[in-house]
Amino acid sequence: xxxxxxxxxxKRGVWALTNDxxxxxxxxxxxxxxxxxxxxxxxxxxxxxxxxEQIPQTITVATTAHSKKIxxxxxxFRLHQIAPSFFCGFDWYESRNFLIATPExxxxxxxxxxxxxxxxxxxxxxxxxxxxxxxxxxxxxALKIKDNRIQQSVLAKLKExx
Length: 162
What we know:
Layout: E1 8-11, E2 14-16, H1 29-32, E3 38-40, H2 42-48, E4 59-63, E5 68-72, E6 75-81, E7 90-92, E8 99-101, H3 103-117, H4 135-142, H5 148-161
């Protein structure tokens, strides 16, 4: 089936029908690190929710595993390690088979990562918050960050953005 172009090998033990119009690379996220949980977050989640219009070139994923880049025939995935104590605030996306951060947690995840790894996720194009976006919830998520320096950095950036 691979030779006929019906199936593509994504990684060892993971195959996908990438030519199927119903296929989504987001479906691969649970299979990227089978021994570690992961969920779509950061810029990718903000785009899915329509908060930013810019289409990300890579799918950004939060995990408790070490950070790394995974290149597959179905797309490029950037896994970012976050503290296990901060690994929360996600759910199944519209009953599909992948986990995604809530809109509020995705924004806080971006700022959390930016405070640890530089400015990569700190600069946003125009943000379009939907009516159901709970701005107070971003503060609640930020207060769950155990590292005080990172927490204060995230809270300050939230104050600027919201």
